[in-house]
User: What shape does this take?
Amino acid sequence: MAFAMKQIDGITVINNSGKVVFHAKYNPRFSKDSTFLRDPDKNLFELYPGLQPEDSTLVECVKNGKRIYREDQKFYDCNGNLINTDNVTLPIVKGGKVVGAIELSRDITSINDLAGDCSDEVSVGHKDGKSYAHFTYGDIITQNKVMIEIIEKTKIIADSISPVLIYGETGTGKELFAQSIHNYSDRKNKPFIAQNCAALPESLFESLLFGTVSGAFTGAHNKPGLFEIADGGTLYLDEINSMPLNLQSKLLRVLQDRHVRRLGDIKSSKIDVRIITSMNINPVDAVHKNILREDLFYRLNVVGIKIPPLRERRDDIPVLVNFFIRKYNDLFRHNVKGIEKEVFDMFQECSWNGNVRELEHVIESAINIVRDGYIHFRDLPVYLIDEMEEKMINVDKENDIHSLSGVVEEVERKIIKRSIERCMGNISQTAKLLNIPRQTLQYKIQKYNIKI
Ligand SMILES: Nc1ncnc2c1ncn2[C@@H]1O[C@H](COP(=O)(O)OP(=O)(O)OP(=O)(O)O)[C@@H](O)[C@H]1O
Ligand SMILES: [Mg+2]
Assistant: This one.
């Protein structure tokens, strides 16, 4: 999701020893109270006792001196209320030294409440690891039978240590499922570590996964690998098919032995890690093409699920559209009421190659530009309008040959309507775009009773 913060509900400033030197919080949507503490003389963790140092963006920013954008940071405030925020955190630098950090926050708690309509639990940062899963089953919006079956199936196996292999096209919600399984399991208070296997060269990847001891190679330090960091929790390996074959066999050995040995170490240690892997190509094809080891595939695929692409579960489009409209209305403080019927009908025809992620981005960008409360064609990205127009012409082409003139008129009406929208109602521009005289356009507008 693109990070978009249009306004803020809170400011917190800490110095480099973690003391809060300024804190202002005001969220008129939920309460009339506001807190405004200048020099409150409190440590950040006294103010937010539920926050762990390793989860705090302010602490991270003071340490690294780098700007951080973080969406969906969940923690408890001192009254025990669960807060969910999007944050921008900036270092405060004096004389070349980081002396503190300032965080601007947007309270998005209500957005989760929306998602929580069907939520049966709330996820919270785990207590002792470095990373955590924030999605739960309540975040998976669906009314599709196959999806509901997958949810039921994965809930049943959530507590088991058996590996899960999730296969689905890009943007279908693989990570959403991986996090939800973790948060539904008895590992939910333990780390959830996600690693994309396509992102790293083999040598680095091996030490990242298994850890190193100092002297293992030049520059090696005593460092735990992801398996050790995820101990007790879940390790999510995304795009597992991109893992080099050599490393795949080492991974298989760790999964079979349940022991991991750091690079350069002589002793191994027992680990208790639940492995969830995912890939966006068919795993069986990957095995045939020798990019996924067959023995590893059987080990990983103890529980195998395939998330259908959006075009195969079009009944999810209405619920997702409504969900994203509510979500971005709330985030941007807009009041978009819905989507024009014709646009909605065309959504049902789109190929949605980017799946739910694409649909979400389309709604997010439309909500930014909608002018009269409803999403029209003109509010959609140009590539999507082009795809829709092409589809529309093809659909109409397939219509009954006996009503050819009717089909032609219908296509003409739709193209004119859409072009007027694209030109924001400017008739001369529309005539130019369609390459017809202005009078002809005006005649056709009347003929088809098109409202501008
Ligand atoms: N059923 C759903 N309900 C609500 N949001 C969803 C759903 N499915 C996906 N999303 C949203 O779509 C986006 C993509 O989801 P996710 O990252 O889980 O996909 P992915 O399959 O892991 O994609 P990729 O293969 O590109 O890594 C996220 O913002 C996620 O919240
Ligand atoms: Mg993913």
